[in-house]
Request: fold
Amino acid sequence: MTVDLVVENSTVVTSTGRVADAGVAVDNGTIVAVGHSRSLPEGDNVLDADGNVLVPGIVDCHIHNREPGLEYKEDWESATRSAAAGGVTTVVGMPNTDPIIDRPERLELKYDRGEASAYVDFQSYAVITSENLDRIPELDDAGVLGYKIFLGSTVGDVPPPSDGEVLEAMKRIAETGKRLGFHEENDEIIEYYEREFKAAGKNDPIHHSHSRPVVAEREAIERTITFAEETGAKIHMYHVSSGTGVQAVARGKARGVDVTAETTPHYLWFTEDVMHEKGNVARIQPPIRDEGERQKLWDIGMDGGAIDFVATDHAPHTDEEKMVDDPFGNTWDSISGFVGLETEVPAMLTFVDEGRLTLEEWVHRHSTRPAQVWGMYPQKGSLQVGTDADFTVVDPGHEWTLDDRNALHSKSRVTPFEGETFTGKPVSTVVRGAVVYDDGIVGEPGYGTRVDVDGT
Reply:
C-alpha cells in the first residue's frame, strides 16, 4: 500500500499521551495510520519531522479576519496565511465585520470569501442583536458554527441586546443545540468609567485598562450563567482575562451549567505593567490585568481546569489605528486589539518549557478541547484514523526572539509580543494532508475550506 503522505521520525503527542519515533500516514486528505515510523506504509511524499513533536492541528476558535468590509486591516487570505505560519490548521472568524454577520446571506458571503482565499480550514460565528432573533433558525440551517453576543462595547460598535432579548436568544439557540458565546463585559459599567476618566483627563494607556474593571467581567459572566441556568442554553465565555472572572465560570460549572471558557496567551503571559512598557500597542478589551488576577487565572483557570481552552482574539489594526508612532499618546484616540496567530503556539510551548503545562495538556487546550466545545471533534483536534489529516509539527526546544514584527504574515502586524523570547516554534503545518507551511508558506490560497457542522 502506498499513501499520499507520510510524516515520520517524530514524537506524536495527543491529549492522552505520546509515542516516540512515530508518525502519521495520510491518503485522500484523511489519516489512515498513526504509529511507529517503521510500521507506516510507504508514501508518495515523505516529510521527515527530524525528531520534533507532531500534534493534532492547532484550532483557534477566536480570530477577527475582518472580511467582509474591513479588508484594509486583514482578510481571509492574510489571516489564514498567518495561521499556517503559526501552526494553526483551523480558525473561526468573528462576526463584527462590515456588514456584521447577522443573517444567512452575509454568513454565506463570509464563507464564499474564505473558500476563495483561505490557506487553512475555517468557520464563522453569527452575531445576535436586538434585530435578528427571528433569524436564529435560518442561521442554524445555513451552517453557522455558533453565535455571539457583545455585552460590552467593542470594535464595530455592535449594540448589546437587552437582558430580555438575551434570554429569548438563549431559548431559541438552545433549540438548535448550538452554543452561544459572549463578549462578557457589563456595558453600563465600562461606559460610565470611560466617561469619568475622560472628564478627569486620565488619558494614559493604563487608564483604558482601569476603565474596564474586573467587576464588569465578573458581573457579565454571572448574569449570563444565571440566564443559562434558566434556559438550558449552552454558553461560552470568550477571552476571560481575570482570575476573578474564571472563579465565576468555575462556580457556574459546579452548579451544572453547560458553560465553557477560553483565555488567551496574552492574559497568561503579561500583566498590566505592559501598558507602562508598550503603551497602546498592548491596548485590548477586556484589558490585561494585574499580577494577582493573572496568578488566579493560572491557578483556577489553567491548573484548576475552569478554562477549557486557549485562543488568540487575533485582532488586526493598522499602525496608525494603534498609534505605533506615539504609543503613549491619548489612549482614547487608539483602538483595541493586536495580532496573535503566529505567537500563540510559541507562547504556549514556552509555558510547557517552564513546566506550567505538559505537552499533553497543551494539546488538550489548544486543539482537542476547542474542537469539542464547538462541535468540530473528532474531525478536527483528534489524530484519529478516518479524520481530517490536520497536524502541526513543532520544535519545542527552539529558543528565539521576535525581533521584528514585520516578519509576521498578517496584513497588520502590531503585537506586544515583539521583543519577547520564546522556547518552541512551529516547523510544519499540514491541513487535510497538504503541507501548507514548512519553514515558509508552501500552500495555496483557496485550499482551505469551511468545516461542516452537523452535516451542513
Notes: The chain has a mean pLDDT of 97. The chain has two domains: 2-54+387-398+422-438, 58-373.
